[in-house]
Amino acid sequence: MMLKISLLIILLLTACAKDQTDPKQPPPKMEIKYTKGLEIYQKNCMACHGNDGTGAIVGVPDLTRVPGFRGNPEVHEELFKHIEHVKNGLKTPGNPIAMPPKGGNPNLTEQDIKEVLKYMHEQFATK
What we know:
Blueprint: H1 2-16, H2 35-44, H3 46-49, H4 83-88, H5 110-124
């Protein structure tokens, strides 16, 4: 009887487990066009936003739902409205965690921020 209960618990835990993909790897998707942005994302953003942009920790906004990241990944005007958010940091209403300016990396340039935003748009626009 204990064996059956133990197997049932293991089965339930396995069924409920979240996908444990490696957070250091980019999401499997199309060929990555913005490789500099990928490098910046991996070093500065992935720890909080996860490899797929949905948030790796509680309280981090799901980037796949941010309006600037949706739509045509070749059109960046709407996306670049987020430059100030990255540059100065942002606390989204209702979330307990604030993003630090430049993701905590004071060495990021405005061009670096544009590159990472283009990468994020490319990866998260069609989810």
